């Protein structure tokens, strides 16, 4: 039993040592010298040189970034920004619920207030 416990604990520590390898991108602002490290598999938004926007989780592979099975070379990137999921969910949720509330007020106030349905629909489908 003692040998099994030692073996189990040693396997646990070996697993921890091997799990520490993570790829990341280190970005430095030229003006402020502030450094930002983006670990692999985080959500980012990339704008390429030919004005194409791609957002999603990224992987690093041989001086290139892969997002949604699309391989981008580092030299083709014009702009790179973190894109947290919480911000995306909150902005979408606020637009949908704000549109629903606007539509609800249009129905509750008066039947002639149907013009409130136009901005409400715009907020819901934005």
Mind explaining what this structure looks like?
The protein has 126 residues and is α+β, with helices and mostly antiparallel strands. It has 2 domains: 22-83, SH3 type barrels, CATH 2.30.30; 87-124. The protein is 40% helix and 30% strand. The chain contains 3 helices and 7 strands, in the order αβββββββαα. It has helices at residues 2-18, 85-109, 117-124; strands spanning 24-28, 35-39, 43-48, 53-60, 64-67, 70-73, 77-82. The strands form 2 sheets. A 5-stranded antiparallel sheet has the order 6-5-4-3-7, with no helix packed on it. A hairpin with a 4-residue loop joins strand 3 and strand 4 (53-60). Helix 2 (85-109) packs antiparallel against helix 3 (117-124). The radius of gyration is 24 Å and the shape is flat. 3% of the residues are buried. The model has no long low-confidence stretch (mean pLDDT 78).
Give the key terms:
single chain, 126 residues, alpha+beta, SH3 type barrels, 2 domains, 5-stranded antiparallel β-sheet, two-stranded antiparallel sheet, 3 helices, 7 strands, 30% strand
Radius of gyration: 24 Å
Overall average residue pLDDT: 78
User: What is the CATH third-level topology name of the largest domain?
Assistant: SH3 type barrels
General form: flat
Instruction: Work out the helix count.
Output: 3
Task: Summarize the biggest pleated sheet.
Answer: 5 strands, antiparallel
Spatial separation of the terminal alpha carbons: 63 Å
Strand content: 25-35%
